[in-house]
Each structure stands twice: as C-alpha cells, then as structure tokens.
Amino acid sequence: MPSKEFETLPNIYLVGPMGAGKTTVGRHLAELLGREFLDSDHEIERKTGATIPWIFEKEGEKGFRSRETNVIDELTAKKQLVLATGGGAVTQPPNREFLKQRGIVVYLYTPVEIQLQRTYRDKNRPLLQVENPEQKLRDLLAARDPLYREVAHYIIETNQGAARDLAQKIFNLIVSQNISR
Asked: Rounded to an integer, what distance in angstroms lies between the CA atom of residue 111 and that of residue 121?
C-alpha cells in the first residue's frame, strides 16, 4: 500500500548500466517509500511471455527497443512507482523524454570493473554474449554515460555501500529536496 507521507513525490526511475544494481536498489527504495516497484525488463518478459535473450534472438535489438519504449511509456504513466529500467533504455530518445518529464531520474553510476564482477556469469544479458565482455561494457558505458547524465536529476555512485545503504541514500536525498516543495 502506498505511503501517504510520500504520495506527493513523483515517480522515481533508476537508470544505469547492467550490473549497477537498479533492481535491487529499486526494491529497497520502493520499500522505504511504501511504493510499488517494477522493473521494465521484467515487465517486457511478463507481457511477451518470452525472455529478453529470446526477444533479441528473434527480433534483434531494434525489436526489443521498440517493445521497451512501449513498456516505459505505459509504466511512466503510472503513479506512486519506483521503476528500474534496462541498461539501454536511455538509447531511445522517447524513453529519455518519458523518464525525465514524468518523474525523478537517478543514475546509478557503476565503474566497468564492478559491472564485470556483477555480470560475469549472467547468461541472461544478450549484449554480453561476446568474446570480450569487458570491452563490450567499456564501449556501452562510453556510449551511454552521456545519455544517463543527460536524463538524470541525481547521480549516485554504486561502488560505495550495499544496495540497502544506497536506497537509503537516494531516499534521503530525494525526500529532503522534494518534500518541502
């Protein structure tokens, strides 16, 4: 049940690279705010009945991004939500607009070394099924970091503290800067 205390706060959207902890931090943040938590990738899988790797295999990245934009448009129209987005969601201009205009965007900045540690054995990440995953992560971060920064209202480094601590830090930052409006 949504918390009355924080109902005037806009939706909160977490962006950042794969392995940033968006889903884990988002769950903790939603709990602190008494809000619903959703993950756009999980919603795509729920709606299609297919895994993201399968969608990439059958429809390519373009097909997946189209589905992702539809889901992000739908989810950002909801209220009282904490949403974790997929790492590449910001590559599509409509997604950046939906996120920035419809809520508070927090970029969970994560160095490549930490991303690699967190995603090393994860076969559910189609873009990392390459010969050199570290280089792929570096290339993705180089391309996407400016987009994350463009859309973000706040930037939080994820290499300092556990997910629960990061959620508390985001909670404190957002509540202190937005509750008095």
From this structure: 18
